[in-house]
Write a structure and sequence with these properties.
alpha/beta, Rossmann fold, 7 strands, globular
Length: 236
């Protein structure tokens, strides 16, 4: 996910910053000044300190600010329905799993290369979604075809915009291929895709497979971020 920093500062942040208070802000600033050498990591932590969605996520019990992106998309497109089967690709740290469960999903399965702490009501896999065995494992755990395929997968950023766009676009295309092959009739698909990053041929295939395909940028998506979300509704 693009909200995530490199591993070392992420571990330090989670270990040392535990609340949204002024004391936590001051502690975060000390961590920023003393311990983080990478400029990109400094920028990430500075954003976290000043981001109201981060404080709100802590206050409401969400694992990441990205939970609000799914909440806003669901409020607009009515994606999550009671009892449905949902698969979450790139699920760490588990914020989207929390939202899916809280909004009434019947079966929820998540997968990520990173470890995901257990989420009550969800099954999680720590494995590469691109592994040949991954789709079958997800479908077996889900107990059938997914009614909703979610993907917030993003490659670690390099700082080179076009490279990041291509790498994240490749993950979005893998998620789209899975959705085309496995989504249940009437189902939906949502994926992160940097602007202009989805292959035109695959986009055309999505439009043939789903009744409606559109792009959306939820309010909680940072204004300076190139990310958009592709929302495909009504699997034919």
């Amino acid at each position: 996910m693009t909200d995530d920093p490199p591993e070392e500062p992420k571990r330090r942040w989670r270990n040392k910053i535990t609340g949204g208070s002024s004391e936590a802000r001051a502690l975060g600033e000390r961590v920023l000044k003393k311990n983080i050498r990478s400029e990109s990591s400094r920028r990430w932590i500075e954003r976290q300190i000043n981001d109201p969605y981060v404080a709100r996520a802590r206050a409401e019990g969400w694992r990441a600010r990205s939970a609000f992106k799914l909440i806003e998309l669901d409020d607009k497109y009515h994606l999550i329905k009671r009892g449905m089967r949902i698969v979450d690709l790139g699920a760490a740290p588990g914020g989207w799993l929390q939202v899916a469960i809280k909004r009434g999903a019947g079966a929820v399965v998540g997968i990520d290369l990173l470890e995901i702490e257990p989420v009550t009501g969800a099954t999680v896999f720590q494995m590469d979604f691109l592994d040949r065995e991954a789709p079958a494992a997800l479908l077996k755990a889900l107990g059938g075809k997914p009614d909703l395929v979610l993907s917030d997968m993003a490659a670690n950023t390099t700082g080179h915009a076009r490279t990041d766009q291509i790498r994240t676009g490749a993950l979005a295309e893998a998620a789209a291929t899975f959705a085309i092959q496995h989504t249940a009739p009437g189902g939906a698909f949502v994926t992160k895709a940097f602007q202009g990053g989805l292959d035109a041929t695959l986009l055309a295939e999505l439009k043939r497979t789903f009744s409606s395909v559109r792009h959306a940028k939820p309010p909680s998506s940072r204004k300076g971020s190139p990310e958009v979300f592709l929302v495909a509704l009504g699997r034919k």
